[in-house]
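To: structure desk
From: M.T.
Subject: fold request, one chain
Message: Could you run this one when you get a chance? Sequence is below, nothing fancy, just the single chain.
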Amino acid sequence: MRPEEFRRIALDLPEAEEKAHFGKPDFRVRNRIFATLPPGGRVVFKLTPEEQTVVTEAEPGIFRPVKGGWGRQGWTEADLAAADETTMRSACRMAWRNAAPPGLRKAAGYP
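Reply: Done. Structure tokens follow.
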């Protein structure tokens, strides 16, 4: 998957917008970051530690925890080149749900 394809997936989510975080593209819902797109063919998702465990065990060739404290909080990086659209769409929805307020999640059908 190319960064442009990921960008389309992220921006398809309700109220998602692209901004920048320390000069790197990020994706937000109501100004809360749910994913970033650093250089090097990666994407970083805001997952829960439990979600991180699930994705890293299911797809170790794609997902890995971010190093350090951010990774222990659930921030997870994915290798775009190794991922398909279905996998990225699923991870992106999880991350979006973790950042979106409850009312928007419910209205969008992502409880």
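Reply (cont.): The mean pLDDT is 96. Let me know if you need anything else for the meeting.
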